[in-house]
Write a structure and sequence with these properties.
The protein has 384 residues and is α/β, with parallel strands linked by helices. The chain contains 13 helices and 16 strands. The protein has a 5-stranded mixed sheet, sandwiched between helices. The longest helix has 26 residues.
Length: 384
């Protein structure tokens, strides 16, 4: 099985330690360790889990019995082997025992939600048109799409993961989300009160980079994902851990000025912001204006170069190995992508192109939903 296929089935790469835990840690941590091992390497026998985690066989058997009773683990028959002796019973994650709600509030036209099983399989989808809603009306629509999803669930719900635009603190409070007219909206609390379920809320781009790490076609623990749409944002994972700033403005790179010689006007009133160089509205408008194919390619290369200029100090400072772009592939692929990669290599002085990957996301528009799944798995089960 390819690594990507395994991750799509739930065996996502870990964001947490995977070694034996010290005695002072709680039983819950050992539960998470057993579950993480099965997510990463299952199906496994009890003895396999004991060897991998360095937990005693008695401890593993006790935890496995508990997790089977709670429908998180299931027995899948005997190991297929020819050596003499009693064959071991194989265990794997019970993908049908629980479900999750993944929510994406970042789309420009509709709030989207999905019912997902523990294997990361999308079972049902629903959406509610935004229709320009702001403030309390937008919050009501967000709660409505979650209620629609709850009605589609066919197994106990483990929790709800939400990717939302805006500056969001660790308590799930949206301090500001201009596109939705939200200021100091306690989104997590509102959803918990409505549903009675555990809720995790994070900025949509930070959620999307979790998806790349857990489910994407990537083998690195040092990643930056740049999401380009109406605006531009970035999510960063360094050493397998999500990077979060103390003031929660991490990744807000759209209004970083690129260059010193002027540039296009930005909607914020300044000139030469990264958003003004590479945002989808500007790319679309300019391409519509240019009829000659060479002029269109030259324009896309120029835009890609400006993205590379903006990212180069970030990539070099954090020693990132993988850069992932999320947005319209017809705009960001091709000349734009090549120019951004060439500029990054030049400005970071990385001689070997293979030492720095720059590519489009393989998860498409579902990357926020996949990341919301990671939020629930990590928050409720301690696995990813």
């Amino acid at each position: 099985m390819k690594a990507t296929d395994a991750r799509r089935r739930g065996a996502a790469r870990a964001l947490r330690p995977s070694s034996k835990l010290l005695p002072e840690y709680t039983r819950a941590h050992n539960r998470s360790l057993v579950l993480q091992t099965l997510y990463r390497d299952g199906p496994l026998s009890r003895a396999d889990i004991s060897r991998s985690t360095e937990l005693t066989r008695v401890t593993v058997s006790d935890l496995v019995a508990e997790l089977i009773d709670e429908s998180f683990i299931v027995e899948r028959g005997l190991r297929d082997e020819s050596r003499p002796g009693k064959r071991a019973t194989m265990l794997e994650i019970d993908r049908t025992g629980h479900q999750m709600i993944a929510v994406d509030l970042s789309d420009d036209t509709a709030f989207r939600a999905a019912i997902v099983n523990l294997g990361g399989e999308f079972l049902e989808r629903c959406e509610v048109p935004i229709d320009g809603a702001l403030g309390n009306e937008a919050l009501a629509k967000a709660l409505a799409v979650i209620d629609m999803a709850r009605a589609l669930a066919t197994a106990p719900l483990l929790g709800i993961g939400v990717g939302s635009p805006g500056v969001i603190d660790d308590l799930g409070v949206v301090r500001v989300a201009v596109s939705l007219g939200w200021t100091d909206v306690n989104l997590r609390s509102a959803i918990e009160q409505q549903t009675g379920l555990p809720v995790s809320v994070m900025n949509d781009v930070n959620v999307a980079v979790l998806a790349e790490h857990g489910f994407g076609d990537i083998d690195s623990d040092d990643i930056i994902l740049v999401r380009i749409g109406q605006g531009v944002g970035a999510g960063v994972i360094v050493g397998g851990a999500t990077f979060r700033g103390s003031r929660f403005w991490d990744g807000e790179i759209g209004h970083v000025t690129v260059g010193t010689g002027g540039g296009p006007q930005c909607r914020c009133g300044r000139t030469a912001c990264l958003e003004a160089w590479v945002g989808v509205p500007r790319l679309t408008a300019e391409l519509d204006r240019l009829a000659d194919e060479h002029d269109r390619e030259r324009f896309l290369r120029d835009a890609g170069e400006h993205l590379g200029i903006a990212l180069a100090p970030i990539v070099r400072t954090l020693d990132l190995a993988d850069v992932v772009l999320s947005g319209p592939a017809d705009l960001l692929g091709g000349a734009f992508l090549r120019a951004a990669h060439d500029t990054l290599l030049e400005r970071t002085m990385i001689g070997d192109p293979d030492d720095l990957s720059l590519r489009m996301t393989t998860l498409g528009r579902d990357n926020v939903l996949f990341g919301a799944v990671v939020l629930v798995l990590t928050g409720q089960l301690g696995v990813s």
